[in-house]
Batch of 4 targets.
Target 1
Amino acid sequence: MSILQTPGSDGRFGDFGGRFVPETLVPACQELEAAFTDAWNEPAFRAELDHLLREYAGRPSMVTECHNLSEQLGIRLFLKREDLNHTGSHKINNVLGQVLLAKRMGKKRIVAETGAGQHGVASATAAALLGLECKVYMGEVDTARQELNVFRMRLLGAEVEAVTSGSRTLKDAVNEAMRDWVASVETTHYCLGSVMGPHPYPFMVRQFHRVIGSEAFDQMNDVIGTSPDYVVACVGGGSNAMGIFSGFVDTPAQLIGVEPAGGAAVHRGQPGVVHGMKSYLMQDEYGQVSEAHSISAGLDYPGVGPEHSYLASIGRAQYPTVTDDEVIAAFQLMSRAEGIIPALECAHAMAWISREAKNMQGKTVLMNLSGRGDKDVGQMMSILKDLM
Amino acid sequence: MTGRLESALRARIEGGGKCLVPYITGGYPGWADAVRACAANGADAIEIGIPFSDPVMDGPIIQQASQIALEAGATPVSILHEVRSLDVGIPLAVMCYYNTVFHAGHERFAHDLVAAGISAAIIPDLPLEEAGEWCAAADAAGIETVMLAAPTAPDDRLPRVADRARGFVYSVGLLGVTGERAELALTATTLAARVKKITKKPVLIGVGVSNAAQAVEASRVADGVIMGASVVHRMIDGGSEAVGLFVAEVRAALDGATW
């Protein structure tokens, strides 16, 4: 039996998950759960999604062996190239699935939250393709540091609202998207961007991203004849990590989810409830949710998807942290050594690999390169001033 | 056994009146005086909000009040401590988000409410399916857990919500978050009528009941109203005096109407 579970109607992964939403949203979550289950089991829906993933998003994404970094670090490093998908990250996998589902449910509009803008851009893209109205909520701190993505979303026809409440980052964008959904639930689908939120989102989003792990499992078998020793991915909410972990959770591979030191829900949090789910959560002594602080807008989140909390609680995956300085170094390392500019989010995974390589000599390491770094170049220009 | 909150509301209803439950954000500067002003001007019970960092059911006014209260250093402990000395003579309920309860621990939180003299709890992000553990602790401690009925609930769900409700059934007035609206939403009275049909418990409409006229309109169908953003708005602009005047105005309108 797989460690990956299909949660029951209570939406639990072990003690984590659930559906802690205002009463108004309970019927919508139940309806979504039924619609997803129905669609996922229907060959025609799966065929339509597979077609879009192939013809529109550009799947399968390839696996690239990094010869230069491998030699430098004394390991054998492979990248799963989600950065090469249309819109530049893994986010498109989930969004195409959810927007197809929203259409099938008769919804006319989607709302989405976004941190770095990757999920917002993907949502705006899928909405443009499939003819739905799209509104994206993005913290004001993030609209400032990711203004290119704000422009992209608007160019794609989405409305972008800068969220000025709370910490003005991803957590507050989720709050605002949920408030919108409470008011618009009859016509609107909430296109949540990670393996978080109330049931069925953590499960559904993981299923939509399983394609990453399934492809990578076959690709690694083709290249090395077995599974890698380590599978490494960055974790904010944790969707790209759940996607690639799902392909290897039942193999001997060690699963490593790298969190930012300033947003380390698993590493520094305690079980708590926010955004519809019970999961590890950074909070104070009274249960007030802490503000995360990370150089990467996409990982600037005090919580984590409940299935990660479950994998951590049973010891199946580890969740170490890296600092912003280590991330900046890794961002440059991958750019110079391999000619691949990683998203700052993925630079977290690279930073951990680079730091821990001394303990993994001769091992094979598969890293999920979940997004490309073009969006981060503006922000990095102000940090790497000596390159100017 | 009928709890203190439900008894107080029933007394008002059986006397031919309509219930008025104002909401005050705990920890906001001057909040204790605002609670006293509500009690002195005809409230039947008062809902005290425990501010939370991520209030997803609240619109801008209550978000703002919560933020100010948190910045002023309000905590669940400090608010409950102050509640002990309020001595307003009417039942008090807390409105808090579930992580405040979960983090403290169900039994401990229920016990803390009892120790502070609180009668009831309203937890807007704790729907029926997730409420079991809390309700067990609350029932054991004698805390009445108010459940929310939403306009989106299908007919087979409402009786289950009403059965689990203690104190009263909170009939959500609209699709959306707390805040003032120009008009009472049609969904407010439609839902309250549906709920009234399936329960004998008091049914109060809250969310989007913004002035005395809307309170009267809502009470044509319901047993009364909860008024949040409109009260907090006055606390922010004019302190306890403005709160007292507003509550008195709504009370007079409810008492002056013929039902």
Note: DSSP finds eleven helices and eight strands in chain B.
Target 2
Amino acid sequence: MSTPVRYTLHHPRWYRRPVSVFWWLKKRAYIVFVLRELTSVFVALVSVLTLLQVRAILESPEAHAALMARLASPPVTGLLLVALAALVFHSVSWFNLAPRAMPVRLRGRRVPDVLVSGGNFAAWLFLSAAMAFLFLGTMTTR
Amino acid sequence: MADTIALEVTRYRPEEESEPTFQTYEVPLRQDWVVLDALNHVKDHVDGTLSYRWSCRMGVCGSCGMMVNGEPKLTCAEFLTDHAPGPIRVEPLRFFPVVRDLVVDIGDFMSKLKSVKPWLVRKQERAIADGEFRQTPQQLDTYKQFSMCINCMLCYSACPVFGLEPSFVGPAAIALARRYSQDSRDQGSRERLDVLSEKGGMWECTFVGECSEACPKNVDPAGAIQQYKLEGTVHWFKTLLPLGDR
């Protein structure tokens, strides 16, 4: 009999347990989820960087060289390595989830999940190779 | 092996206390007993005031979902020996308002379920004389997995989005919406897409994926929600076309 009873009209006196702001620390799967969400920050960062690189390439070889020199400093290189790890984690986890969002059907039968995620991985590899060719090619032809 | 195991059970008696407490019961540790058997033992022989829901004891009715050692589980499928030497903590389903002891209020879930029209919608009913609706095994296969849902609400307790945003219509309701929208006999997919495109609908989901992990029937609600997101996006692009869908 700790507190006086206060019933609400027409429904019982519920108890709602508040959700802690640290809910995501309570389970490994939740931590992985939050990490996956946080990798989006690095995706945004690298997207902006790529746009800057494209702009510099279109501007002049000197502009591109200046940008590359700025990116070559140890702290930025360290950050880019972290970004690379984050991007790989981001891409792999999303491509692995792709078959669940896209159950592809051909002639009434469901295409095996491995082919759907495999298609995504193949496209990723192709685009990465194309980007590498574009940027590394630009650097060597200078 | 010890012959008893401790059960730490949430007690909440709204007429006596302002927040829940735990009460420990020693129950026989039998090979063939699940957590629900232990609760029934307490109710029948130790403390008749304990309140909880159950019905079928065989993973069909979806009534006995509770948190067992912090995980949403059907207590009729959770063997005591898997948690030996214990103690086993039994709590009401997380993120739902607690009515009493292990009983949560499911009114909110029921109204959300109804909002997605989990039944076959027909623009015009076919006359009985026209015969039955035929369906191929492939057509059945597109929705069968989602039809296995037993409304046990474990997925809601696994979903942090539902915990943080109680207006979220939730995994089971969306999986069941998908079940009907994928059915070749149904004509209500557009109505459901409209409901799920609103605030509290599919876009609340951030694909944590734990709903599908928690599901005792191997339904994939997380997959259903992402499929809806894809459908919603494609529909939106179609509305941009000159003669597109409105």
Note: The longest helix of chain B spans residues 221-240.
Target 3
Amino acid sequence: MRDFTAVAGAVLRRNLIHAFKNPALLMPSLIFPLLFLTAFAGGLSNVGNIPGFDFPSGYTTFQYVFVFLQSAAFGGVFTGFAVAADFESGFGRRLLLASPQRRGIVAGYVVAAICRWALTATIVTIAALIAGMEIDGNPAQLLGLVSLGLLTNIAACLWGTGLALRFQTLQAGPIMQIPIFLLLFMAPVYVPLHLIKGWVNTAASYNPITALVEAGRGFISATPDVVGLAYLSGAALVAAALVWTLTGLTRAERGE
Amino acid sequence: MRGDPVGLNETLEQVGLVARRSVRRTLSQPALIIPTIVFPLLLLAINASGLGSATKIPGFPASSYLDFSITVCFMQGALFSAITAGTELATDIQSGFLNRLQLTPLRRVAILVGQLAGATTVALLGAVVYLVVGLIAGVKIESGVGGAFLLLAYAVFVAIAFSGIGATMGARTGSPEAVQGVFPLVFAVFFLSSMSMPRDLIAIDWFRTVATWNPTSYVIEGLRSLVITGWDGTALWRGAAVGAAVLVLTFWAASRALATRMART
């Protein structure tokens, strides 16, 4: 256990120092959520006046939850980029050779993803509050929203890490991003699910991210909804991504 | 040799040589072309379904959000062209190809214009695909067949103008990574426009002000007018004027940056 913690701690420290000393690596994960928040909550605010739009806390709050979860997902993916860069430069191989407990490497990257996302989430929340976001949920419900973000962040980081361990190159970047992007945007982004038309409605109904987004919006507006389904979806995503990462680690250990 | 007067025909021949290489290089990278074309269509499908109810907002200028937002694809295609143009020029600088070109009698304008041919070809391909898919999905072009052709020409013109931004960045930085890194800011400009909602229906005052001052809004509105309004002279000339201004400014800046780069090397 001590080996595991020592390896995880070393990977975490290195990743955070690397990220915070290179603004070019950190800025995209900060800028994109702010951009989405501005464009969606600002440019589309009139969408909140559509007949049938029944979210009680206002359109900025409605969009904040999506952007919050989106920042969690992309925070995880950007950490996957860091893993890929480490393997591309040869550092990852040396890390595998030097680590007495290799699962600690994965744990270190995951905790680094959480730390990086914590900064993004704080900035996005401040921006949303400045933009007039209303919070109706109580502290326990807000903690629920944060926990949904954590599940999203961990699942996305494990997905990216699993790919990075398999491909060991930054060229895998689009494969890391596109499925996450599609899952996120196939959820009810702009309006509640019942106002979405056509095949996107069907896709959104089966999308596990939909439950996370809807539960998050329920928490912040003090009208909890689909909470059990959201946690089940989040836990299932984390479990599947963990298996994906650990099998990727095994392949990397074998040098495949 | 470079200082000698070179005739128009010779310059065009040089542009053709560089352009042929640029087109071949771009078309040989399906990983570059396919996402450029598919991604905007996917976003269009998602946005048209997700924001379909926005047409119920009083004063919304179209009865279908698909009609309203199809032109966003053309703008995204133009932005991707800019990224392609900038990345390819920067790659040539980084790999030393530009240094080797300096040993030839090629004129700077031939290098600059020729290098953009690949990105322009992708933009044209994309524009045709967006239009065909849009028509199949039920988009109705109010300006008719003539308007559809003008839409294609307009889209390619905008893509060339935006490619100048990419070329400027590519020439100034000489680094493909730096070009990619700067582009979120270009996307920010794009997002802060009337892309998703008509300006008069943007409820947040500061956003409406930014969108009104943002030249990108007028390019989008010019393109969009052909689809949802018909022949709207004001929207068209405003969009064309902004496109022309971007074209002149960015090509001037790219030419200066390339001159500095070539003098430096």
Note: Chain A has one domain: 2-254.
Target 4
Amino acid sequence: MKRNNNGSKRGLRKNLMNRRDFIKTIGITGGAALTLGIPGSFSLVRAAEPEIRIGHATALSGVFAVGGPLLDKGLRLAFSLSKYKDRVKFFLEDTQVKAEVAVQKALKLYEKDKVHILVGPIAGHESAAVSAVLTPMKKLLVEAYGANSYLVGKDCSPYTFMLGHTTYNLSVPMAPWFLKNLGNKVFLVGADYRTGRDIALFFREAFEKIGGKVVGEFYSPLGTTEYAPYLSQIRNAKEKPNGCFGFYGGSDCINFVRQFEEFGLKKDGYIYISSIGAFSMNVLGAMGDAAVGFYDCFHTVPYMDIPQNKTFMAAWQKAYPGEMIDEFGIMGFDVGVCLVKALDAVGGDPTNTEGLVSVLHKIEYESPRGKIRMGPNNGTIVPMYARKVVKKEREFRHEATFLGFFGTPCGPQYEWGECKLGCPST
Amino acid sequence: MTFSTVMVNLLYGITIGSAYTLIAFGFTIIFGVMGVLNFAHGGFVMLGAYVGFTIIKLTKNFWISLFLAPLGIALLGGIVEKFLVSRFYGKDIHFTLFLTFGLSMVFSNAVLLIWGGVPQSIQLPYYFKGFINLFGIYYPKFRLFVLVFCCLLVSSLWIFLTRSRWGSVIRAGLFDIETVEAFGIDIYRVFSFLFIFCSGMAAVAGVIIGAMRSINPVMDLDFILVALSVVVIGGLGSFKGALIGSLILGLAEAFGAQAIPGFAKFTTWAIMVAVILLRPKGLFSER
């Protein structure tokens, strides 16, 4: 080893900083930094408003694979137009339209991603499962679709809000409209599963109460591709119905409507009226002219001529050029508008869950759908429309007739029971 | 059930059954001769429908679509056979089962990626719209076309299989491949030809069924189920079985839906169970 002048190892170390000097230096530097610079940074962080973390658990695969991404686009668009556009951060997860997956994703979003608000899944069974898990945790769930009547009945929760619809409020309003515009004889049809059966049941009850008559009915298995044998039952009904009412969704609806025309029912004056907005923009092209002249019932009308919708359409076309405006996109935007308004009311603080809950419970807002109001059972009271499919300049559109404002009532007389938060009258 | 209802269901059942024949034929022959349980067969039907849909959108011509889509899918079938399926000839059947099952998922996701999840449908030319009065029954023109077209195609296939040299080779292959090879016939060329041909046939079915129904990225499952049902009813590797099985399936769907609407699909399953119990090898099994 090369030695220094005094020939010792200690001499070498003398020129180096010893531990005490090191601690002293760090202490002085740190103290100075804390005094001069870092507190400035700290105060800046304190002043910066916290991030708004929004989780979106929706269907990116499965039967709603089309709807989920559009809902998400609408949601992001609403926030991009708000003052929170630079603070908001979205976390998107695929629920695969499976209840157990939806619950896992909801928990992941809240526990790992630390979201403040969860925009919930599409299907009713997913919504119920997620709400049941999140309610005891006092976590917020806002549903864009989630058509589950129990969530506005006995399973309602102060932390779960349904902005969409239920099978009840998408069928009952059509009964008086049918009687007034088409006649008093109906043939009920539908896919043979809970939603299809409920739609027919609620319509039948309301229709018969006002003097209507059901002249026949059938329910074909979900996923039926050939309707010819069923359609001949409509033709063979003892009395010719003034219209056929019921619900088929997606591919089932396309097949049913196309074959309804193909087998000559439309030509012979039969008409089909659907529920749950089955004639949505994204399937009209596949139905072609077969759907023209038919009706459905929904709370959203793309291309509707009201100022809020015009603003939305302009924003959508600017953000997503060339993409068709459809019901899912509008609903996503609607949820965004509602959340922005709720955040405004709590001073933009997304961590104030209880504040958001109390604001959402009484919220009223204007959206592309029209005027929306939260009912006491945390289900929205929405404008409902009878939509006629028309073709204008080679484009399919809806001609809407306003039916009134409808929520979902609850109480012991209904299967879904009474909501402890309260029940709307309509 | 009135006479006209019976006739409508009969016609409808035969029409849809004849379209099923095009699917079932390929599935059963590939299985019977090549020993490949082709789970991607429904995928070829689906791709045929989607390619046909795109060609019609571009050319506005149904006939071009009916010609080009099967051609394109046959080419794809050739590629799949050459580079994937052929590697597993002579090996355990499970290898090709898993391979084709994986392929079917690739096809579904490719469709989702390229065409999206929105259901589509093939629009018909104006002259196929409307009805024809058949003995007092109004029957859609296009369904009648499907019936005639499929009958012609199936008849041609029948003649090909029973009268041509290649048909003899295929039929011989159903029983004993080694003997066929012993005659100096390159059986792997036969395999390639069969796979290409059956993929093309599946695409023909895809285009015509896509014009009657909506098309979507999960429709392949329906068709593979149809093919499996036909094989169970008609028998493995039997052309006659594919034909009769398809017709039974079509008629069971039609009359089942008419008689017991809520249990329409039950009719098909009931027939399948009956066949399995009474003739486990199917009605016309050739093996």
Note: Confidence is low (pLDDT under 50) at residues 1-17, 32-46 of chain A.
